[in-house]
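Researcher: I'm comparing several assemblies side by side, and this is the next one on my list. It has 918 residues spread over two chains. Same procedure as the others: predict the full complex and return the structure.
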Amino acid sequence: MTEVIAALREALGDDAVRTGEAIGERHHTDWSGHAPAQPRALLLPRTTEEVAAALRICDAHRQSVVPQGGMTGLAGAAVPTAGDIVLSLERMSGVEEIDPAAATLTVLAGTPLQVAQEAAAAQGFELALDFGARGSCQIGGNIATNAGGLRVIQSGMTRDLLLGLEVVLADGTILSSLNKMVKNNTGYDLKQLFVGSEGTLGVITRAVLRLSPPRPQRHTALCALADFDGALALLGHMRRRLGSDVGAFELMWPDFFDLCVSLTRSKTSPFAAAHPMYVLVEMASIGGDDDAGRFAAVLGDALEDGIVTDAVIAQSASDAAALWEIRECTAEFPVALDPINLDISLPIGRIGAFVDECRAAFAAAWPVHRAFFFGHIGDSNLHVTVDGRTSPGATHAGVDDIAYALVRQYGGSVSAEHGIGVLKRPYLSYSRMPAELATMRRIKQALDPNGILNPGKVL
Amino acid sequence: MTEVIAALREALGDDAVRTGEAIGERHHTDWSGHAPAQPRALLLPRTTEEVAAALRICDAHRQSVVPQGGMTGLAGAAVPTAGDIVLSLERMSGVEEIDPAAATLTVLAGTPLQVAQEAAAAQGFELALDFGARGSCQIGGNIATNAGGLRVIQSGMTRDLLLGLEVVLADGTILSSLNKMVKNNTGYDLKQLFVGSEGTLGVITRAVLRLSPPRPQRHTALCALADFDGALALLGHMRRRLGSDVGAFELMWPDFFDLCVSLTRSKTSPFAAAHPMYVLVEMASIGGDDDAGRFAAVLGDALEDGIVTDAVIAQSASDAAALWEIRECTAEFPVALDPINLDISLPIGRIGAFVDECRAAFAAAWPVHRAFFFGHIGDSNLHVTVDGRTSPGATHAGVDDIAYALVRQYGGSVSAEHGIGVLKRPYLSYSRMPAELATMRRIKQALDPNGILNPGKVL
């Protein structure tokens, strides 16, 4: 047993320091599919003070530390190498307080998102952060990756919900800024640095999140459009008429739409004819007297103005579920395809041209291929899936190279919401300039001079 | 002429480097009333490259630089000392682009807020940042101070509207991150550091701001309440029923309300009786079919549930203006009083108890005194005004000492929206812990190792 492990056992107790086979396989890799590795040790601290003690020891020994949450990340930021010690927040779990007057929730970093959501709901509030991994992912990881998800168009990214943060720096300094106030201009807003830093600047231990009134009323429609410009026009129209009640705007190019329809139970399009573009729209409101009428009027005007070619408005929850089944066919992708997935952002107005050019570039590289385009356009977020099974020659690296080169050219982002981790590190410079990367390194050097926190990730 | 001035003239041209009497008095101090000083020189760069050249020269000469915007700050952050060179952004003015698809506005830092607001309005959008100084303040200063203002309850602080930023570091490095995308998780979000840094970390030269659909429909009411808990109940009730359409929630304690009524033209309270608490509420919406009915129903239910004791709903724009005249009597304070003003934040649920305790502490210190309490409670923001004229012995320092000691005890913020500057520097440690202050210094050291940017401010 080496000196650092001995010191950690001394500080945290044997039960909180595991090695070898005692480290569960779930700590070897995350949902990114990055190559697993058994780390040198697993730390399971119970308190912020234990996190601080562990980091102080590791910093003194120049021992690299990989913070881990729910291991649902898609960029490999929580995957260790054999020489790393991993620090899991799983024992620091629980909602500590809901303050109804301030509309805030104070939570330990290892709390699963769904647990926090349910605690908020029990008090008549909504935690407006949601995505598929809700049952497994943890709040600390959500903050460390600035998670996006299903509610971004209405409520923003994780950053927008964060009011206060407790974080431990590499040298064991505890920064406790559990602020509940909307307005607080007292010096630098340090918490912002840790949002999206993917464990490279500090270990998040606690957070204060903003709650909102629930928006239980949902009205859903599927619209057919003439082209991408029609989608932009509809987005603008809905925003002017519904404001922040626009709850979803999911654009689907025909290749994606047709595939998805074929994967639904009914295998039937809601439209009699084929269309050049489809969008699933939703109004999510706190509930007015005639929300259904308001939604129908907005879509009716869009039809009358020629913005929308055709529309199907869900008349019931099961209607709405049937429309969402099309968009959510992506859950079937791992079975139906060998999916090579991209998560990128582009200035909204340029997304249509980007898709055309990207499609042409794929065709030039792989004469036989299948690619599917869809996205949360209101968030500037585009997803692209290439089917490796039916696209001879197409590899993840090949798809990345082509698409990210175009992203760079279009002034886009190589990571909309998944982060950089290890998988996108080679492409970070496509979206950030040398001066930005150099400044990030200055910040890293200032907060973690020995470079022990998640080395090899992001930068 | 010293070497640094000569080098600046060489780089920027004589016209952009002024000294002595050629420096207008407006560059000597800001709206804080801090003691004016004639700086060593005034720089008037025209481009980001000129800002970079100027900072490179100043950094090489260890010459301190004070960035200046519209000089409307209330904490003295832009006030020079005699040894400083001031750098005004006033020549870098103008809206460069409005992107309707992305709903963004790209603007030079020296642009007055009102110019940006009008440019957005001309394209059918709203820039949801507003306050009294709109005609004089500049976008760069708004960002550097994370300005708040009249729209915070609905649209957040300046930080929440900021998508992209161009900033020049002390060594002349240009960080250009003119991002327009909602989702962009590519490394550290560096722009966040400069928001609220009050010119101590970099000079802001350009920004991309988020636009929103206009909310032209306003419905206004004045409510009478039994106590502070009633105000909390009404705020929760309105948020549950109106969601993000709650456009104002201005709480007024009776001392403030009575004074303000006496300062209106009519000198008459809209209520027949006196009440323990008043709140001016507003719904600001994009406009539905029956917004007036919706607003009346929400207030009617609050009356019926006993949350509200009495209410006056404005039936016209002039009714609404008359109600706002009461709240906006603060504009008369400089004439009617010798106002000693505080701008603080507290966790919303504790504001009532704070006011009671603060009032008692003032009474203990100054048996004869007049203090007035009011605030944007939905933003956690409380304002306190003590009248120096009728409060023998009360000084600004005395009021600060008493109130800030209580703010510290209540876990509040000594600056809600005005920033720290020089005036609140002695009290920064009341709201931020030693570890936070030490980490701020680490960041300052990393980005401005020679300490040339706005020395003596904030930290």
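Model: For your comparison table: The radius of gyration of chain A is 23 Å.
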